[in-house]
């Protein structure tokens, strides 16, 4: 366990590539001398007691593609540019004093104090005694109101409209055995998800309970309600209702109730379990089906749902699998509604801006091209079985670079070793001949993924084009599968 301050002299390790000092008791500021670490690609200082501002010099480290400063006591304005403009490369959660930064941080704007503000503050100090009496009256009123709300704990409330069922806090507490740890199935950025069974309907549900003490949690709840109120598609996670009321202690309670997905999420199928237990593997056919499902969902959100919606948070853990292994896209907590007045032009971005502003198509507002990029990364993750944050991706090399450098002739080096046909044939041993239908499918999928992750957003296809191509890949694969079987070298 490391304690004390990080020494400035650490900034003299000019050839340092990766620095991980998380889960310690470090205090003080992040040294500005870190700006000298020109070769640094990964910096993890999470879960410490660091304070002060984030050094702006970190945005000059051109190879830095993974920065985790979460769970500290940092404050001040979040820098912009460099790694701070890459939503998938940075984590700043649980730093209550931060403000500003790129749009995907959803932070409040930073305030400056002028001389006029200082005079106003002095005036406020004079008026404090006057308002003291009023504050006492207000406190008494709030106490009476809280007492009244406690008596109404069992009242039902939904933020989705009259077409959705109404459930109370008591209903959800009973369904989840009072939100017991045994029913906890996962934790997310803004709360926890519990499995339960509603007493009246006997339906298995997943209850997403928002931790309203977390910055942005209530906004996320409202965003998700707004998104789910009007969108419906076979590949979007169906919501049963929302609950906005008070709990048994009188505290505000907000939750979303979904159908329970018995096969969990895509992340648990692609990567080894943290508890060391074996995880199931997906066949190529199943991965194709999941890719088609996700492409259809995003095509609907971008082009066919009346009010175009950008998901903004595509990742395997947000892709749920039902009993038939049909994929459904969930978690709309940071979704954005695309406005006609927003520009999707990316002419101001150069081809070297890989990973920068993926969700801000040339501006600082979300763009559909960001979802296309996110979908491409998920395709690569499904085909390679590797996370974009895998330790092997360092020195400025990303999962996109990894696949591109082996495409198309050496794809055997990037394909997930667990990817196998239903018959048990090892894909990595498949003959490389052009007529091999398995290889043709893999090449087509990787080519589509690389197109979706083109460094220039304007060069990417839209999701309607992506969906059309992935349907064609699946149709070709299914047709050829009935005629051929992959041969071994």
Automatic annotation (TrEMBL):
ATP binds at residue 208. Pfam families: LRR_8, Pkinase. It is a single-pass membrane protein. Its EC number is 2.7.11.1. Its main location: membrane. It comes from the Eukaryota. GO terms for molecular function: ATP binding; protein serine/threonine kinase activity. Residues 179-474 form the Protein kinase domain. The keyword Kinase applies. Keywords: ATP-binding, Brassinosteroid signaling pathway, Cell membrane, Glycoprotein, Kinase, Leucine-rich repeat, Membrane, Nucleotide-binding, Phosphoprotein, Receptor, Repeat, Serine/threonine-protein kinase, Signal, Transferase, Transmembrane, Transmembrane helix. It is found in: Cell membrane; Endoplasmic reticulum membrane. Belongs to the RLP family. The processed protein kinase Xa21 chain released by protein cleavage after X.oryzae pv. oryzae protein Ax21 detection translocates into the nucleus where it can bind and regulate WRKY62, a transcription factor. Confers resistance to the bacterial pathogen X.oryzae pv. oryzae (Xoo). Receptor kinase that detects X.oryzae pv. oryzae protein Ax21 to promote innate immunity. Following X.oryzae pv. oryzae protein Ax21 detection, undergoes cleavage, releasing the processed protein kinase Xa21 chain. This is Receptor kinase-like protein Xa21. It comes from Triticum turgidum subsp. durum (Durum wheat).
